[in-house]
């Protein structure tokens, strides 16, 4: 997902270009607003964390671009392309190192396992919407 800061800053085409150059297939793509309820479900694992409210406010504060990627080891590979959660720790050349300065607004999200990918794809795409 391209988070609201990435969309607002006009980074969508840059990030989609990186995905294409990497060789992943885009099997779903949409710009959308996330409801509070969907955001709370999406980030449910962080419910008890002190930043949860801020995180939900942020992710619902503007359009995101939801992207369904397919490719060899796409989950780990996309997380590697994003870099560390805190941009200060992200390796040069990663999206977060190149485009972000704070953990709170770090431009992209990636599912962290096949289980979360399946769950999150179900939150953002209707059955039959993915190629
Ligand atoms: P994401 O789930 O967004 O792909 P991630 O898996 O790298 O990122 P998580 O630990 O799942 O990181 O945290 C989810 C998101 O919550 C982070 O991307 C970040 O925007 C926010 N976040 C995490 N830790 C903090 C923190 N200490 N302070 C503020 N925001 C945080
Ligand atoms: Mg995460």
From TrEMBL:
Its main location: cytoplasm. GO terms for biological process: CTP biosynthetic process; GTP biosynthetic process; UTP biosynthetic process. One of its GO terms (molecular function) is nucleoside diphosphate kinase activity. Residues 1-131 form the Nucleoside diphosphate kinase-like domain. It comes from the Bacteria. Pfam families: NDK (PF00334). Keywords: ATP-binding, Cytoplasm, Kinase, Magnesium, Metal-binding, Nucleotide metabolism, Nucleotide-binding, Phosphoprotein, Transferase. Its cofactor is Mg(2+). ATP binds at residues 3, 51, 79, 85, 96, 106. GO terms for cellular component: cytoplasm. It is found in: Cytoplasm. Belongs to the NDK family. NCBIfam families: PRK00668.1. HAMAP family: NDP_kinase. This is Nucleoside diphosphate kinase. It comes from Deinococcus humi.
């Amino acid at each position: 997902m391209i988070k609201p800061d990435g969309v607002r800053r006009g980074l969508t085409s840059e990030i989609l270009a990186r995905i294409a150059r990497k060789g992943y297939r885009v099997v779903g793509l949409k710009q959308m607003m996330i409801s509070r309820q969907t955001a709370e479900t999406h980030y449910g694992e962080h419910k008890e964390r002190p930043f949860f409210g801020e995180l939900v406010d942020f992710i619902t504060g503007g359009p995101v671009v939801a992207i369904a990627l397919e490719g060899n080891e796409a989950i780990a590979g996309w997380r590697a392309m994003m870099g560390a959660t805190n941009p200060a720790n992200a390796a040069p050349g990663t999206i977060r190192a190149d485009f972000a300065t704070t953990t709170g607004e770090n431009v992209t999200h990636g599912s962290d396992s096949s289980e979360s990918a399946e769950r999150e794809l179900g939150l953002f795409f209707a059955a039959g919407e993915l190629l």
